[in-house]
Specification:
The structure holds two protein chains of two kinds. By secondary structure, chain A is α+β, with helices and mostly antiparallel strands. Chain A is built from eight helices and 18 strands. In chain A, strands 1, 2, 3, 4, 5, 6, 7, 8, 9, 10, 11, 12 and 13 form a 13-stranded mixed β-sheet that branches. A three-stranded mixed β-sheet of chain A has the order 15-18-17. In chain A, strand 4 and strand 5 form a beta hairpin. In chain A, helix 1 packs across helix 3 and helix 4 packs across helix 5. The longest helix of chain A has 20 residues. Chain B has ten helices and no strands. Chain B is elongated, with a radius of gyration of 20 Å. The chains are: A alpha+beta, B mainly alpha. At the A-B interface, helix 1, helix 3, helix 5 and strand 1 of A face helix 1, helix 2, helix 4, helix 7 and helix 8 of B.
């Protein structure tokens, strides 16, 4: 990141460190030396101090939950009193622990898939237990298994930064294809029938989701972009710098280098309810632009004032013509 | 030449040397008045700053500046003070960045209005609080959640959790750390209740 970073540490680093101290103090043997070490860390910077106050405050807030400890019957009564649904999972599952025992609880957990959706223009970052990150782009439906190693992209686009675990490879299934990571950063986009997989770092395999299928399998290396339509699979290699541009949505920005007006409009339409319609007459015009994903108003101004085109609003459609 | 220090303007060094005692009063104020503003603060930052990956840094920086400033004098009320610091930080950054997203600048003046708006009165009922906590724990990844539940509700120590689940103590420690980190974000911050 640019600009001043306090103490050259990112907030995430400082806050993780604070969380580590807080749990160490709470759950593990704690000696005078440990306390002295913590005090030193706190004194290093007000940023440390602030982060530690923040995390311990929240931890103290969860103390209310300890009220749930005790006989199973009491827990059940509590759960009912507060109108909890067992299906809601989470803390409600505490009651289940005592009823079914831990094994039963874990079994239920494994059956569970979590679905995440983003609306048009939405952008969501998920962090998994092992630190892997998944970023969901606009208009996306994404599911992940309880063990967090199997995922499905039902619609939309997601960027994966996966911590590799050879014993439990991470797989993403979309459009009848499965992407198997071999320690990777990659992008999966599933739009109108086509599946696009772009590999930014590491290696990944793309294979048919059904074992018996005779569809192709391909091994991807950085810069590879695989395009799958039905049973066909083609792979091209592009400069990784171009991939970075394709990932600019992660900063809520769309970057176009010599793209046609038609392409720019199609891309912006993915992020906005208002839909751009480009007259075929001007669809081939090339532009260079950097547009915020929600910058449709700014885009309209630029098209009108700089390209000298006509911009007409017809209901939800914005028609661009000469 | 020795630097002359204005006693009213404490430096970080002064804090380190213990010249200014971080009074428990100051901490209590920070916890009571500043931390509950986090959801609004994050919303403000999100609207003012395009680069989402920097929001956490900005938030932490606002806290640090607020805390440093409050060492001299605890500002009352806290809300306009914190948001003024946030706005100044954004203005600083906008000036320094090469590429300025139009929206960031345009929003700053509008946001000025928000400074005097009353703070969110978080008179959360006990049951709402429990539901909030439930939702927050629910959002943790399954393994992490299991560890946090054993630690918090069953009251096990780290070692006992490791034995119960048959996993390494360092793994338990990692899950607890990740759990605490995530709970703070969920319970204070931007995405309280945003889950779909």
């Amino acid at each position: 990141m640019s600009g001043r970073i306090p103490n050259a540490e990112t907030a995430r680093e400082v806050r993780m460190c604070a969380a580590r101290w807080a749990q160490r103090r709470q759950f593990w043997d704690w000696s005078a030396e440990d306390q002295a070490e913590l005090d030193r860390w706190l004194a290093q910077s007000p940023s440390h101090h602030v982060a530690y106050m923040r995390v311990t405050t929240i931890w103290n807030r969860t103390e209310r939950l300890t009220a749930l400890r005790g006989a199973p019957a009491a827990e059940e009564a509590n759960a009912r009193r507060f109108g909890w649904h067992l299906l809601a999972g989470g803390v409600a599952a505490i009651a289940l622990i005592s009823i079914f025992g831990l094994a039963g609880y874990r079994y239920l957990e494994l059956q569970k898939q979590t679905t995440w959706t983003t609306p048009v223009g939405g952008h969501e970052i998920l962090t998994l237990g092992d630190g892997s990150k998944i970023e969901l782009n606009t208009n996306t439906v994404f599911r992940i298994s309880a063990d967090q190693r199997t995922a499905w992209l039902d619609r939309g686009e997601a960027y994966f930064q996966i911590k590799h675990d050879s014993a439990h490879p991470f797989t993403v299934t979309a459009a009848g294809k499965r992407v198997v990571d071999v320690g990777t950063k990659f992008l999966v986009r599933y739009g109108t029938g086509d599946l696009e997989v772009a590999l930014v770092e590491g290696r990944a395999k793309i294979e048919p989701a059904k074992a018996k299928s005779d569809a192709r399998t391909a091994m991807l290396t950085p810069g590879d972009v695989a395009l799958a339509t039905g049973n066909s699979l083609s792979v091209v290699n592009v400069p990784v710098s171009r991939l970075t541009r394709e990932l600019s949505w992660r900063n809520d920005l769309l970057i176009f280098d010599n793209a046609t007006l038609a392409d720019v409009a199609a891309e912006l339409n993915r992020y906005n309810r208002e839909q751009l319609v480009v007259d075929p007459d001007v669809a081939g015009m090339k532009i260079v632009a950097s547009i915020p994903t929600n910058g449709i108003q700014a885009f309209k101004r630029v098209v009108r004032d700089f390209l000298g085109l006509r911009v007409e609003e017809r209901g939800r459609e914005i028609v661009i013509s000469r | 030449m020795a630097e002359v220090r204005d006693p009213k303007r404490p430096t970080v060094d002064a804090i380190r040397e213990g010249i200014i005692v971080p009074a428990s009063e100051l901490e209590a104020w920070f916890i009571r008045e500043v931390l509950p503003l986090e959801a609004d603060l994050m919303q403000f930052l999100r609207r003012s700053w395009q680069n989402k990956s920097e929001l956490e840094d900005l938030c932490q920086e606002v806290y640090t500046r607020t805390y440093e400033a409050a060492l001299q004098n605890i500002p009352k009320p806290a809300r306009p003070f914190v948001f003024t610091i946030a706005r100044n930080l954004i203005v600083d950054r906008v000036r320094r960045e090469h590429v300025v997203p139009i929206e960031a600048v345009a929003d700053l003046d509008e946001l000025g209005i928000a400074l005097d708006a009353p703070g969110p009165e978080r008179t959360v009922m006990a049951r709402d609080e429990l539901r909030l906590l439930q939702a927050a724990i629910d959002r943790l990844p399954p393994r992490c959640r299991e560890v946090v539940i054993l630690g918090r509700i069953e009251g096990l120590t780290g070692r006992q959790i490791a034995a119960r689940l048959g996993i390494a103590e360092t793994t338990v420690s990692d899950h607890l750390t990740a759990g605490l980190y995530a709970l703070a974000d969920t319970l204070l911050g931007e995405d309280a209740g945003k889950r779909s």
